[in-house]
Amino acid sequence: MKITTRQLALCAVLTALALGLSTLENLFPVTLVIPLPGVKLGLANIVTVFALYQLGPLPALCILAARCLLGSLFAGNASALLFSLLGGTLAMLVMLALSRLPGLSVYGVSIGGAAGHNIGQMAAALITLGNTAVLGYLPFLLAVSLFTGALTGFVSALLLRAISHVKLSH
Fold this sequence. Notes:
Layout (H helix, E strand, L loop, with lengths): L4 H21 L18 H11 L2 H19 L3 H21 L6 H24 L8 H25 L8
Helix pairs in contact: 1-2, 1-3, 2-3, 2-4, 2-6, 3-4, 4-5, 5-6
């Protein structure tokens, strides 16, 4: 598959947007509203959902991987890289599978991606800690993913509808 300069530039802009949203999200203390450690709104996932629907799976996966790598590099937190990559990759696989189901909206795909992300992060915690006690936290994370995934899906649906007349690929 040959990538054009336009496609590369669009992926770079979307990666920068995802990094910016991730940084912005870190400024809001979500734990004041939802007192669970590690809970985030997932604003950067709006870009992932958008890219999946507008550009396809491979560019969306590249944007996601670049966001995870650069985000951990900029934050100076290499240990977060495993959590980001496992969570993001599982979220992408779930969203890719769900997006192929006829009749399932972007809301359902986004909620599935949020749940997949939390399961991937739980897998990273199991690997890192070597202890299954963290699995007791999973039901709470999955419950929160209903809200965060719906929020991400809502914003993604608005964005997709707003640019439905714009041709981004090819």
